[in-house]
């Protein structure tokens, strides 16, 4: 084959490839958008080199991501850019886009969010990060009548309007995620379709949640919301199935009657509440959630300047308060975890047993202090077998404990099986195995 023939074959092949590409380009626009929808944004951008007709197709994909790397790298005025671009998106039928300008080079600058972002009826999913909301933008939120998911991160309302502003959320919302923002909730807001509410590091008061209805809410999480220290909240969410709280402040929160079985996870590290009454506050919280299936995780770690005699006094005062208060009926919980130094482990454990009755205690991983913790807990739990009446007088919970057994998680993590402390100590293959204590209490208490 001579060079001329080779060139003709290459040209024919190129024309065939071009026709093949043209056939793809001739597909209906909705089919092309469907193809782009399943690509990552990075891959979707790469399609712009296929042909002139593909050059801007990626910019109208229905799940467009307005991120710094894509849009704002060379744009000095992102707000002005959005004011021009968003109207084009709506005319092209884009129903979902993500907006974020939080990046390393702009992390210290919060841009005012243009009002055009809100109010588009076709918008279904919006993620805003690193903006300040002005009055005119806030007033348009309610106009997004088809908005189903709203995620706000590091979004702030200016201080001069925070006290007077009223945010009316669209009733179409199904998911709200707010983190590290001061976005307020208006009294009596209508969340008829909201199924998930996730609040983390919210800096505004949450008191108004008590006046809002959540008939469809199924998942509710509160994390690091320190304004709760001065709040008393009662949530009306009859269909709630999962509640999670994480923080150093022990909140005052309760729920109206729950029609379904609800699981609750409480992760408490009371370093922010070093008063001598945090155990009683915790008991009050457990009592308000007693209708739930509770998993309680206590991480009791003090800062270095609180170590020593002062810390020990606070721990003992908490335990004595729980004893002197008479402790109404202890609250049944599914599981209890305690993370603290060994020197104060026993004291804290006794205090916790005064206010709650866990079915399981531990889930200890054998990596560092595992065996020492297990032996210490076993010693505390088996004191009832000594027959020392003086011991029972000061630790009444021992009278209520009928049985305690040590269990280890099987290798496939599909269940737990009994094991003795001596078997555990002699087994050298337990570097990453987990153990727990199964506890059986007098039925009259549960």
Polypeptide structure, described:
This protein is α/β, with parallel strands linked by helices. The protein has helices spanning 3-25, 29-37, 41-46, 68-72, 78-91, 135-139, 159-162, 278-288, 309-324, 342-355, 370-381, 389-394, 397-400, 421-426; strands spanning 63-66, 96-99, 111-112, 125-133, 149-157, 175-179, 196-200, 219-223, 232-235, 242-247, 252-255, 263-268, 293-299, 331-339, 356-365, 401-409, 416-418, 434-441. The strands form three sheets. Strands 3-4-5-6-7-8-10-12-13-14-15-18-16-17 form a 14-stranded mixed beta sheet. Strand 13, helix 9 (309-324) and strand 14 (331-339) form a beta-alpha-beta unit. Mean pLDDT is 76; it is low at 303-310.
Supply the helix-strand structural class: alpha/beta
Largest sheet: 14 strands, mixed
Percent of residues in helices comes to 25-40%
Strand content: 15-25%
Uncertain stretches:
303-310
Count of DSSP helices?
A: 14
Strand order of the largest sheet: 3-4-5-6-7-8-10-12-13-14-15-18-16-17
Distance between the termini: 91 Å
- Measured on Cα atoms, how large is the radius of gyration? 29 Å
Number of strands: 18
Query: How confident overall, as mean pLDDT?
Result: 76
